[in-house]
Amino acid sequence: MNHISINTPFIKLDQFLKFANCVASGGESKLRIAAGEVQVNGEVCTMRGKKLVPGDTVTFAGETFTVDAAE
């Protein structure tokens, strides 16, 4: 499991995929989310604006990421 730290209270799902280097662009992020390829906390999520907070998990392309708060 990979841990990704954020400095803000939340991050949107499409931004998270770019931030975690899962996708090359925002356009790709939008397409992957719309296609149902991303899970948030174990459930498929097709909302690219879904707000992720520390403790949430994101699964994409066989990898799982945990959102952590930066200290």
UniProtKB/TrEMBL annotation:
Keyword Nucleotide-binding (UniProt): no
Superkingdom of source: Bacteria
Signal peptide segment: none
Gene3D superfamilies found in the cross-reference section: RNA-binding S4 domain
PROSITE patterns: S4 (PS50889)
Keywords attached to this entry: RNA-binding
GO molecular function: RNA binding
Name of the protein this chain belongs to: RNA-binding S4 domain-containing protein
UniProt source species: Merdimmobilis hominis
